[in-house]
Amino acid sequence: MGRIKNFIEEETLDKAIELFQLQGYRTTSPEEIVKFLGISRSSLYATFGDKRGLLLKALNRYRKLTADSLEKITLESKDGVEGIERIFDISVTGCYHPGLPSGCFMVNSIIEFGPEDGDALQIVKDSYEDCRNALLHFVKMGKKSKPTFKKLNVETTTDYLINAISGMVVSAKVGMDEAACRRLAEQTLSVLK
User: Fold this and answer.
1) Has residue 21 been placed in a domain?
2) What is the pLDDT of residues 79-128, one digit of tens each?
3) Distance in angstroms (rounded) separating the CA atoms of residues 193 and 172
């Protein structure tokens, strides 16, 4: 008979995201992981396989949380510009957590690994597509109802917006403060108005 887990997996993954965001993956030892997560080494291995397995599940958890936020915005926003503004807002807000290094967990991970970890890279690409698809939805919505969108190419505008978000996230990682990042977002969105 298997042992009963004395922790909630999603909460543990949220802690792992925080730890990897704080220290990076490569520099975090298994001892630091079990101490920070508050689980035993045997629970770590039984539930997540190993340190890399924990990373991949943490990346998938972060992707799910992000996708859930994007879905909520998609369901609640009645206007293309509003939806795009809300996506930019959560993108900027997600880069500035008190006590953690600036930047997005996904981008920080891909900066740490580069293309060498195909599994991690695929999760990042999938998350990128989630965001791009939400932006595409709102650009199409705006194209139908906003005179300012009529002249815009849907695909090019969507790529412009996702590239702007990616650039802001990387800028946050290298030290751009939140106020400057928000000004950059406002300037980027001015093309829609």
Assistant:
1) no
2) 999 999 999 999 999 888 877 677 788 888 888 877 888 999 999 999 99
3) 25
Q: What is the mean pLDDT of residues 159-167?
A: 95
Query: Can you give the pLDDT at residue 6?
Result: 65
pLDDT tens digit sequence for 136-153 = 999 999 999 888 888 999
The domain in which residue 86 lies consists of: 62-192
- Cα torsion at 79, 81, 83, 84 (round to 10°)? 160
Alpha helices in 94-153 (DSSP H): 105-113, 118-145
Contacts of 186 (CB under 8 A, 6+ apart): none
Yes or no: say if 19 and 28 are a contact pair by the CB < 8 Å rule.
Answer: yes
Residue 145 in any domain: the answer is yes
Under 8 Å between Cβ of 166 and 192: no
Task: Judge contact between 81 and 142, C-beta under 8 A.
Answer: yes
In a domain, 152, yes or no: yes
Q: Answer whether residue 29 is part of any domain.
A: no
Nearest to 133 by CA among 74, 90, 65: 74
H or E segment at 29? Answer: none
- The domain spanning residue 110 has which CATH number? 1.10.357.10
Task: State how many domains the chain has.
Answer: 1
DSSP 50: S
pTM: 0.89
- When computed from its CA atoms, the radius of gyration of the chain, rounded to whole angstroms, is 19
